[in-house]
Amino acid sequence: MAAIENTPQHHGEAPRKRVVVVGAGIAGLAAALRMHQQGWDVVVIERAQTRRSSGYLVNLHGPGYDAAERLGLVPALAPRDIGFFTSVLVHADGREKFAIPAAVAEAAVGARALSVFRGDLESALYDAVVGLVDIRFGTTVQAVDQHDGGVVVTLSDGTRMETELLIGADGVHSRVRELVFGPEHEYFVDLGHMVGAFPLHQVPEHVPEGAGTTFIGPGRTAAVMNLGPERSSTFFTYRCPDSNAELALGAAPSLTQAFGDLGGGVADALGQLEADPAAAYFDSVAQIVMDRWSHGRVVLLGDAAWCVTVFAGYGAALALDGADRLGTTLAAHGDDIPTALDTWETSLRPEVGKRQALARKGMSRFVPPSRAHVWAGELMLRAIALPGIQGLVRRAIQRANN
Ligand SMILES: Cc1cc2nc3c(=O)[nH]c(=O)nc-3n(C[C@H](O)[C@H](O)[C@H](O)COP(=O)(O)OP(=O)(O)OC[C@H]3O[C@@H](n4cnc5c(N)ncnc54)[C@H](O)[C@@H]3O)c2cc1C
Q1: 115 lines ligand 1 (CB under 6 A)
Q2: Of 125 and 84, which is predicted with more confidence?
Q3: Which of 34, 74, 316, 340 has the fewest beta carbons closer than 10 A?
Q4: Which CATH number fits domain 16-62+120-189+287-362: 3.50.50.60, 3.40.50.300, 3.30.70.890, 1.10.600.10?
Q5: Which has more pLDDT, 64 or 2?
Q6: DSSP code of 130?
Q7: CB of 48 shorter than 6 A to ligand 1
Q8: pLDDT on residue 350
Q9: Does 56 contact ligand 1 (Cβ within 6 A)?
Q10: Domain spanning 83-111+190-286+365-401: CATH 3.30.9.30
Q11: Closest by Cα among 185, 280, 189, 288 to 237
Q12: From the CB of 352, is ligand 1 less than 6 Å away?
């Protein structure tokens, strides 16, 4: 059996507590940053061999923006902000129905908002911690053993590590959750939809510059954004009875099967996907619902604990907010880690519960179940574009954020 790796102590320094963070996504890197700021020795374990740099668009406003600000990320993110853009609702063949100008979204959301690629957010976090924390790529966790006062984590390379705290930030299919809390099926709530999103290496055809086209039909939505080179991307979501079959088929064949009949920018986007299928994020839409996010000195964070789904549009925001609050609460409770984790969970649960409920309610807006729902949704979007309505929309968004 391999010897146990303890926290390195430097001569003359007060002993530092160690935290092992599993997952170098948004939640994991945000936790690494916050815990380093609190003076902890941080080790990050990431299964992927290297960082993922591109991805889909994420919006940060309200508490998500506030958390990014508290973590010191806004100066790095502001130059990468995509900003607001015009949305053009289209027919299946790509012809325009009506447009919602960028100014409408801007008036509704306000100035404290960022729209960035997930990869840019991840890069901002990575740049903030690189050289300060120990990040081990191509590694995962194989076993977790808790004892009085600590946790021993066994890694896939055979290393055994003694730590005061283990943070499982390893996403919706979390291995830490499986090892400590039990199998995925106990917490996984399949919402019966798929989501696919990928960046476009070439500016998409048939989409006006500085705009995104959106087709919303019964059971499916496709959006293609033309925001210039290196900034254009797509978003697809559709209802499906068997997500495992779609996952087995893969992103390009599944999305082509579900959207291949559409015109406009969709055909070009699907063509680009076929040339680089690995660039796609493609998964079932599922929430993680748990009674407890911590067990002793092991805590789950981000999608691993509470995935709210893309229909909430809030997972990255919660990952940042959750990581930031975790650092603050641990600092307030000194060595009493289990009490700190309880306090942190109590403070965060109402927000997570609200976002999960909003996502379930919002599903029919993203993927209308019938033609009648499509028409009702269009009526609402046309109304939003009317002068004078933006104030009402802003107040509705503010209410959701408070
Ligand atoms: C299309 C789309 C649009 C979205 N839009 C928004 C939005 O507008 N606003 C918003 O706030 N949120 C949005 N989200 C949600 C947001 O992206 C996620 O909720 C957030 O990124 C979750 O971060 P995470 O770090 O918890 O998980 P992940 O991003 O899944 O990161 C988990 C990390 O752990 C690693 N890992 C996994 N398993 C292991 C293992 N066994 N060992 C070691 N490492 C492991 C993974 O490689 C990964 O790096 C969107 C999501 C999607 C799919």
Answers
A1: no
A2: 125
A3: 74
A4: 3.50.50.60
A5: 64
A6: B
A7: yes
A8: 96
A9: yes
A10: yes
A11: 280
A12: no
